[in-house]
Fold this protein.
Amino acid sequence: MTDWDQLYNDQNTPWEKGEPAPCLVDYLKNNVIEGEILVPGCGAGHDVRALAASGAEAVVGLDVAPAAIQLAESFSRTGNERYVCGDLFDLPASWNGAFDAIWEHTCFCAIHPTQRSAYVEAVTAALKSQGSLIGVFYLNPYDDEHQPGEGPPFGVEKEELEDFFLHEFELLEQWVPERAYPGREGRELMVRMRRKS
Ligand SMILES: C[S@@+](CC[C@H](N)C(=O)[O-])C[C@H]1O[C@@H](n2cnc3c(N)ncnc32)[C@H](O)[C@@H]1O
């Protein structure tokens, strides 16, 4: 399994772009994500701060790497955000049904594909009934040096996403975001889903 803390300590963090996901920035120009939001695998927390700045009631950035949390906490606050060091697969019981929304960005592609069902279970459990899962999924992160099956990041097919999520979630909309970090253009899928029960 990946030693995420070591990667942060070594500053070997190619995913770290120094700014929130462009598709999230665009989404927040026309939409508000209401209530308390959980951001699993928040890394340096740029998305957390973008959400907090958009007026979200409260935003919790979760990351398993202490060095990521330390980095996230080094930035100025933009609203009602906080960071927690912890494992998505071992959430506190008090987080059961606690969140109105989850923002997913490069946590799903970072975990090993064998953990994907556990990811769906964890985010479903953390959401309130009818809570929202909004996120951007990295469908195809592969290049000449990084082939399917090798990761992280691990790619996913749109149909696989549906297989994983649609038992627990109703798909409300999905689209290819207009803007992405350089190199990710056209390789991402943005989705908005609602917990069924
Ligand atoms: C590819 S990085 C993306 C970070 C951030 N979302 C971004 O785009 O900059 C994946 C993040 O997920 C975190 N992570 C991996 N497994 C996790 C787990 N089981 N629970 C919580 N965080 C996890 C890693 O420490 C890392 O910060």
Notes: The two ends are 33 Å apart (CA to CA).
